[in-house]
């Protein structure tokens, strides 16, 4: 038997504080116990080191290099207080049943990364991640529950022993997004949670006092009523859930690139409040919103800023701590240490400082056939520029100044202000935009306010992009491959949406989208059916196969920003039968 943690009172610098010193931990390892509420409050906001130690089969296997200390410095200096370190153990077992020994090199790496984060003063939560679908899926009809429980318990004995003497800044989460939908699956998850707690109790160190999170099946906001709180949990615990809502906006499905109507906000408020509501009976369990994000790759940025402001603000009002999901492509560019959408990060920080953000206004009505956004001034090749008025949602702040780089713009000459709008003058815009200017991004204006995050107006000269070719017989696409078509961008380097229709006018996917508004009808889903990179648009293998199976000519109409019915900012590509 290992010695158990003992509690003692130690006099430090003339005052007494309670210090729990575990006999089996080095004497210099200080552990000042935190309640779950204290941990949750101190960890706000957090950042996920996504697609990193959770990559399958190994760290570095996906789109990110192994995690570096400098990446965590960038996270810390942006204002984040914690880091969630998802870890997949699945491919690191070196023996089978019943020991399920984990590779000691891998365990050491996990320990080192945890130390790297705490050495920077970042709170940590680490877990067992994609194991949830690779071997620990309790919802599979042929799941061997005995094996899952044996392997899970044995894994947690090893992980808990590894982390037993870490400081109270380190919290643990048993398993990420466990699949399942039924009460029976919830019973199985409850058994796993109990085994996790048993492993913590048996591994000594500070584990019996360590903050943990517990979750429902799937970890969404929806199945919370199936959550079974294990009886007699003695560890301080918080509830964790993940938030990717609304689905169509977050995953760029069905042409939904805008967000922010009163109904959009009410839906999010209701979803977040229902999580709080279901846990309030349990003496207000602290809540960790452990993952959330809306991809910056192709959403309209003003919509993204409004979404971040609203989600973080609502979560804060409900006492929830938010942890940004970052797969390495969406938020922090780890190679350069720059944030791809710094404004969304600043919006998060100012919400948490208690400030209001002034936000670029943008179209929120899905039935509008022209979408406007104060994040941009677009000018089409062939058109001259005029004064441009951009509305803002001020939220009680005033404009303070407008800059391009370090140059301060002159009020009256370059722009004029109204209470909640900026008018950029023709003479100023004409320095960047004109009938004959080359297409592309021309300048970014930073708009500052008396409080809250700054906003950005990007000046973009655009024309319709061109493709290297415009059709190919579907049967000629290499079997099992995505179809990649080189593109010459003529404005923003992003696709907004893709309409996928057969020569008979039917939609290849989700025929029900015929009932959606004009800018959404027949549009496919980002990543599942279409994608793009820096110099290509992509029709996925699944979409090629569906076109082939339809036996019909299928046109993929790529749409770009600005989005307006009939503005011609689209190119069609045909997969012929
Ligand atoms: C443990 O992992 C290291 C690093 O990947 C590898 O070199 C080693 O062979 C592994 N050990 C076993 C027993 O598989
Ligand atoms: C990580 O960087 C921080 C800040 O620069 C430094 O204090 C710390 O010692 C570093 N940790 C490691 C493990 O290199
Ligand atoms: C289920 O797992 C247990 C423990 O690993 C093992 O002993 C048993 O043979 C497995 N059962 C089946 C049907 O594979
Ligand atoms: C929880 O604690 C209560 C009161 O001590 C006890 O009656 C009950 O059996 C315990 N439940 C479990 C699952 O240990
Ligand atoms: C609990 O969650 C369900 C499902 O999300 C929701 O319908 C219900 O309103 C919630 N209950 C409370 C008290 O918030
Ligand atoms: C913050 O914004 C809200 C909503 O627009 C407003 O009611 C409130 O007065 C603002 N607070 C400050 C300090 O401006
Ligand atoms: C905004 O400007 C108005 C008019 O000048 C002034 O009365 C108000 O105090 C200002 N508000 C802030 C937050 O600076
Ligand atoms: C612009 O305003 C912001 C916020 O009020 C302020 O921090 C900044 O120093 C100002 N910039 C210039 C160049 O005056
Ligand atoms: C403006 O900012 C965007 C990112 O928000 C960037 O992609 C673009 O290159 C910038 N344009 C200029 C002219 O700096
Ligand atoms: C399909 O496309 C091919 C090649 O462009 C064309 O010859 C054929 O007529 C089209 N079929 C239909 C039904 O539109």
UniProtKB/TrEMBL annotation:
Pfam families: CBM_X2, Cellulase. Keywords: Carbohydrate metabolism, Cell wall biogenesis/degradation, Cellulose degradation, Glycosidase, Hydrolase, Polysaccharide degradation, Signal. It comes from the Eukaryota. Residues 60-328 form the Glycoside hydrolase family domain. Gene3D superfamilies: Glycosidases (3.20.20.80), Immunoglobulins (2.60.40.10). Residues 372-458 form the Carbohydrate binding X2 domain. GO terms for cellular component: cell surface; extracellular region. One of its GO terms (biological process) is cell wall organization. One of its GO terms (molecular function) is beta-glucosidase activity. InterPro entries: Carbo-bd_X2, GH, Glyco_hydro_5, Glyco_hydro_5_endoGlcnase_B, Glycosyl_hydrolase_5, Ig-like_fold, Ig_E-set. The keyword Transit peptide does not apply. Belongs to the glycosyl hydrolase 5 (cellulase A) family. PANTHER family: ENDOGLUCANASE, PUTATIVE (AFU_ORTHOLOGUE AFUA_5G01830)-RELATED (PTHR31297:SF41), GLUCAN ENDO-1,6-BETA-GLUCOSIDASE B (PTHR31297). This is Glycoside hydrolase superfamily. It comes from Immersiella caudata.
């Amino acid at each position: 038997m290992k010695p158990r943690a003992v509690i003692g009172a130690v006099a430090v610098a003339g005052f007494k504080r309670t210090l729990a010193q575990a006999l089996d931990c080095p004497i210099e390892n200080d552990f000042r116990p935190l309640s779950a509420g204290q941990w949750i409050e101190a960890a706000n906001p957090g950042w996920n080191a996504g697609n990193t130690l959770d990559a399958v089969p190994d760290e570095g296997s996906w789109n990110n290099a192994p995690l570096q200390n400098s990446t965590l410095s960038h996270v810390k200096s942006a204002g984040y207080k914690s880091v969630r370190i998802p870890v997949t153990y699945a491919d690191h077992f070196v023996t089978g049943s019943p020991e399920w020994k984990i590779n000691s090199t891998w365990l050491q790496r996990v320990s080192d990364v945890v130390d790297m984060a705490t050495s920077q003063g970042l709170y940590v939560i680490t877990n067992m991640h994609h194991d949830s679908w690779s071997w620990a899926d309790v919802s599979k009809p042929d799941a061997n529950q005995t094996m899952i429980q044996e392997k899970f318990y044995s894994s947690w004995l090893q992980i808990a022993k590894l982390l037993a003497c870490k400081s109270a800044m380190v919290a643990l989460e048993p398993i990420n997004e466990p699949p399942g939908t039924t009460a029976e699956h919830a019973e199985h998850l409850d058994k796993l949670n109990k085994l996790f707690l048993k492993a913590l109790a048996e591994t000594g160190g500070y584990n019996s006092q360590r903050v943990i999170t517990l979750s429902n099946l799937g970890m969404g906001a929806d199945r919370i009523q199936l959550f079974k709180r294990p009886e007699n949990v003695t560890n301080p615990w918080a509830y964790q859930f993940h938030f990717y809502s609304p689905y169509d906006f977050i995953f760029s499905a069905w042409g939904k690139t805008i967000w922010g109507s009163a109904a959009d906000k009410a839906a999010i408020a209701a979803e977040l409040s229902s999580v709080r509501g279901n846990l309030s009976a349990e003496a207000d369990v602290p809540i960790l919103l452990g993952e959330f994000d809306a991809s910056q790759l192709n959403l309209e940025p003003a919509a993204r800023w409004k979404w971040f402001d609203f989600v973080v603000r609502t979560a804060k009002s409900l006492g929830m701590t938010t942890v940004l999901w970052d797969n390495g492509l969406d938020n922090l560019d780890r190679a350069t240490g720059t944030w791809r959408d710094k404004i969304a990060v600043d919006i998060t920080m100012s919400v948490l400082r208690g400030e209001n953000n002034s936000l670029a206004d943008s179209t929120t009505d899905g039935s509008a056939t022209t979408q406007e956004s104060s994040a941009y001034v677009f000018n089409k090749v062939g058109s001259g520029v005029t004064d441009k008025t951009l509305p803002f949602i001020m939220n009680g702040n005033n404009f303070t100044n407008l800059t391009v780089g370090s140059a301060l713009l002159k009020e009256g000459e370059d722009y004029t202000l109204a209470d909640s709008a900026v008018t950029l003058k023709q003479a100023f815009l004409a320095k960047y935009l004109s009938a004959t200017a080359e297409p592309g991004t021309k300048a970014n204006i930073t708009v500052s306010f008396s409080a809250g995050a700054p906003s950005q107006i990007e000046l973009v000269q655009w024309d319709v992009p061109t493709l290297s070719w415009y059709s190919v017989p579907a049967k000629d696409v290499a079997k099992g491959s995505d179809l990649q078509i080189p593109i010459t961008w003529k404005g923003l380097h992003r696709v907004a949406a893709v309409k996928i229709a057969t020569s008979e006018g039917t939609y290849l996917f989700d025929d029900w989208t015929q009932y959606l508004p004009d800018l959404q009808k027949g549009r496919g889903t980002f990543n599942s059916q279409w994608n793009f990179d820096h110099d290509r648009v992509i029709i996925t293998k699944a979409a090629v196969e569906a076109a082939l199976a339809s036996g019909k000519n299928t046109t993929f109409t790529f749409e770009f920003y600005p989005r307006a019915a009939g503005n011609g900012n689209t190119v069609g590509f045909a997969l012929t039968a």
